[in-house]
Amino acid sequence: MKIILAKSAGFCFGVKRATTMAFDAAGKCSRICSLGPIIHSPQLVRKLEEEGVEVVRRVEDVPGGAVIIRSHGVTADELEELRRRDLEIVDATCPFVKKAQEFARKLSREGYVVVLVGEAEHPEVQGIVSYASGGEVFTVADRAEAEALPRKKRIGVVAQTTQSFENLQQIVGVCLEKSLELRVYNTICDATSVRQNEAREIAAKSDLMLVIGGFNSANTSRLAQICKEILPATHHIETASQIDPGWFHNVQTVGITAGASTPRWIIEEVLERVGTVGK
Amino acid sequence: MKIILAKSAGFCFGVKRATTMAFDAAGKCSRICSLGPIIHSPQLVRKLEEEGVEVVRRVEDVPGGAVIIRSHGVTADELEELRRRDLEIVDATCPFVKKAQEFARKLSREGYVVVLVGEAEHPEVQGIVSYASGGEVFTVADRAEAEALPRKKRIGVVAQTTQSFENLQQIVGVCLEKSLELRVYNTICDATSVRQNEAREIAAKSDLMLVIGGFNSANTSRLAQICKEILPATHHIETASQIDPGWFHNVQTVGITAGASTPRWIIEEVLERVGTVGK
Ligand code: F3S
Ligand code: F3S
Q1: Domain shared by B269 and B198, yes or no
Q2: CB 3.0–4.6 Å: which of A16, A193, B232, B260 could bond A11 by disulfide?
Q3: Count of domains for chain B
Q4: How far is the CA of A7 from the centre of ligand 1 (A)?
Q5: Taking the mean position of all CA atoms in its chain, how far away is CA B267?
Q6: Do A183 and B186 touch (CB under 8 A)?
């Protein structure tokens, strides 16, 4: 039996970097916390807690010592406040998110009304918005929300890194109707689409497909759905223990991928188990 | 019988301005020519010839004295050459076209690859392109041509003033796929869409619609077609002599509009004739 593991399975560049930085810092600092959970993986958050990394929700709750900023980033005010308190800052903001923050600030400073394509409640979006708050800034989730925007002479658009290109494209089309000058920085990160495209390719040449990740993880569910459309014998699992040996009947090739918040060791446990039951 | 004449019938702001400037200059200068015909109206070009305005095709053919630049504008090189020859320049380039030229130059100077939405053979387009020729510049007529563009980090878009918004919108959507940063100046002039929308409104409340303009004028034919869809009793005419008194049977309201190259006096001859036959 052949096993194909997706190269893009699991953490993206920014999350991998943030978790590495968090474990490194945990080894060096005696008092350390992270501002929000580093990632939507209870298993990983627990591991970090064992290393002494406490999760706090607000800047006011940081007890002192070192503080980790996760890949989503924080608002300009929060960063300012952390600096003012003279904490040791481990800034694991994803460099792609930092870019989106910088473009938002640049557009705002150069006099553009900033339109951020994304979900208003998402911490990444709140962070990016804060960098444009010197001027007017609107967050729009979709075309309909863009259509409600007022007319502005100059509009500058940036996107939450996880948005789909099609959504950005539609909103840009509407913003073109609303402005005389339009400037767009395409700050979409391709980690999600690369992972989805690779999953499609692997599903097409497999007899069984396993998609690993939390049942409440939106991106893992989407990944499983994409694979299922191509290969009905697709199973969404959280851990190796959920694998049913019956699935492997007559299977020549098993494809495996994992959502963005699935830690490496969980993928490896699955690989090991598949190697055993698939014999 | 009621007659409704469209406010937007005939010349747009830029063509009106250019013809006024041409007649004014003709009255003052003894030796004068225009670089290309001021407008696609043989009647008007003949009138200007009677006033001493000769039409020449190329800068080399300008005999000396004064030269009129028509509303489409000229290339940067041509303007340079006219200046070098120390001619009296009557620059009737439409201010909206001038803006498009300036934005093309600005984008090019700031390092953007310029994409001009328009027809490559049109003199206005050739003029605008010339202002961006310090850097890379592409002219694209439609979505398909835009899809053939290479990927570029920074793309700057401007449009020929007479393009449709839908075409610009589609091309901008494609350029977004081709770039990381996209900047768009919407240089479309609304004279055409205003004229078309007003024609629609008038046709809807008339019993007979007359659309005046050359049979070979693309914009007049389009205008007649738009009206015909709303009011089948629409007639495209070139001059007052083509009016058939039989059309006015049972007509309460006559709507009248005219294409972009139709001179005022031709519209007035039609008004007069309608007033007579419609009694
Ligand atoms: S956190 Fe990940 S999804 Fe992209 S923006 Fe950074 S690599
Ligand atoms: S020539 Fe006329 S169509 Fe617009 S760009 Fe100038 S007013």
Answers
A1: yes
A2: A16
A3: 3
A4: 16
A5: 18
A6: no
